[in-house]
Specification:
Two copies of one chain form a homodimer.
Chain A: E1 2-6, H1 17-25, E2 28-32, H2 33-39, H3 48-54, E3 59-61, H4 63-68, H5 70-79, E4 82-86, H6 97-105, E5 110-113, H7 118-121, E6 136-138, H8 149-159, E7 164-168, E8 170-171, H9 177-182, E9 191-192, H10 195-209, E10 219-224, E11 232-237, H11 238-242, E12 251-255, H12 261-267
Parallel strand pairs in A: 1-4, 1-5, 2-3, 2-4, 6-7
Antiparallel strand pairs in A: 7-12, 8-9, 10-11, 10-12
Family (chains A, B): Belongs to the diphthine synthase family.
EC number (chains A, B): 2.1.1.314
GO molecular function, one term (chains A, B): diphthine methyl ester synthase activity
């Protein structure tokens, strides 16, 4: 049996009782490294909080490992109970559909334990979740690669009066150009896009396209470390948010569509009070 | 302090460790009755599973109580720790924004504990969550009230190639017409829309509008009891799904937009195998 278990967004206490039962039952436990290293403040040597809670060792599985060693993980799951842990929900922003498809094709039973993901946790800002359009991803621009397909999607959402969730780029374990040339594996340091960079890129594309999909006066909501004890949520125009230091990653950004009075009322709690930014605290 | 705690979708084991800690700390615990009675198989006299887990009594709060006694709940939260439990995520399909806004206006601290909601748990069918457009609600038609604003929204989503989540009507504690006339409180028995009824209404509106937003051959995914041990997920055309008995509520329906090969591959696992419907089991 392959258990795909969502860990939620904050820390080790965001696992569900059902998820914890599953992990305790499993002989082998993997955790995807792509976002977990960051979200849970883990390092390759720092899985101990989780391991203490689970009472067993946890193997960090980076993208390469999941791709290269999927056969091994799946053959273990055929013989015994294996847990694959994922930050957020298993089918949230990052999908693990491929591993599940491969398991099902091999006739291995798969059970999914759901949890919160960024896609529903953004509801906390008061913008109604059913009034969001297509989600977009903002990739890091380079000198030669500045893809802007997100622009048209935001434009369509806003024409329909809908909000847009912008997921911001995460670059973890990217091989250096040099190492690609030399065939030796060396990696760039991890990079996580800030809200400031995202807005800079968004405004650059608006400057280029000039179709008024949005402007520096468009109302947005910036989220940093959503679901964790020191989460920060600020509502304001792009221009306002660009001046704010949201601190450590992960960040994401919502561009509002048409807002209703009840949405506005809730957003007001997140607007910067003159020189006194309200830092929202979700600690329990 | 007011804790607004998401319970997830299945049963009492879907609360997170963080949520359970919060509940254990609280002096008073309310649970919203609107969907919890059903999702958790609870009755007004059957809160004992939760009460045993939490080690304290739980007060069932129906919509009237939340509206009429919000002042009481909030004044308790001002003096001590109060938990308000919500099926799914606090800001999922049903929102509790109003209670949170009132608490914040009174200066009462609010902490939110997130959990899975139907909005992200539908990801299990393989349709990518970022490729959904606006969510629609399908209300029960009556002889005199047949609102169809969902039609245009589905049409727009499908024109953009996006999937549409249809939330199906729940009618709990609706006063009878007779009781409204007599001023005595009597309620209709609860009603939960099935996938079959939803498709019937959808096709009726298509017949009326004739704009080909969708047809009986449009691919959909039906979900019953999502996230619980006996959940049932079936992919097929509207015509096919209309013949299927999905069993007990809650039901919801996804109308596909353009599907990618990886989405199709996953949907294939949920297609009815000749006279042998695959019932998906999420039990852990």
């Amino acid at each position: 049996m392959l258990y795909v278990v969502g860990l939620g967004l904050g820390d080790e206490r965001d696992i569900t009782l059902r998820g914890l039962e599953a992990v305790k039952r499993c002989e082998k436990v993997y955790i995807e490294a792509y976002t977990s290293l960051l979200s849970f403040g883990l390092s390759s040597h720092g899985l101990s909080t989780l391991e203490t809670l689970y009472g067993k060792p946890v193997t960090l599985a980076d993208r390469e490992m999941v791709e290269e060693k999927a056969d091994q993980i799946l053959s273990e799951a055929r013989e015994s109970d294996v847990a694959f842990l994922v930050v957020g929900d298993p089918f949230g922003a990052t999908t693990h559909t491929d591993l599940v498809v491969r398991a099902k094709k091999l006739g291995i039973k798969v059970k999914v334990v759901h949890n919160a993901s960024v896609l529903n946790a953004i509801g906390i800002c008061g913008l109604q979740l059913y009034r969001y359009g297509e989600t977009v991803s903002i990739p890091f621009f380079t000198s030669t690669w500045r893809p802007n397909s997100f622009y048209e999607k935001i434009q369509k959402n806003r024409m329909l009066g809908l909000h847009t969730l912008c997921l911001l780029d995460i670059r973890v374990k990217e091989p250096t150009l040099e190492s690609l040339c030399r065939g030796r594996k060396q990696y760039e340091p991890p990079r996580y896009m800030t809200i400031n960079t995202a807005i800079e890129q968004l405004l650059e594309v608006e400057q280029l396209k000039r179709e008024s999909a949005y402007s520096e006066d468009t109302e947005c909501v910036g989220f940093a470390r959503l679901g964790s004890e020191d989460q920060m949520i600020v509502a304001g125009t792009m221009k306002q948010l660009q001046l704010i230091d949201f601190g450590l990653p992960l960040h994401c950004l919502v561009i509002t569509g048409q807002t209703h009075p009840v949405e506005e009322e809730m957003l007001d709690f997140y607007r910067p009070k003159s020189e006194n930014l309200e830092q929202q605290d979700n600690g329990v």
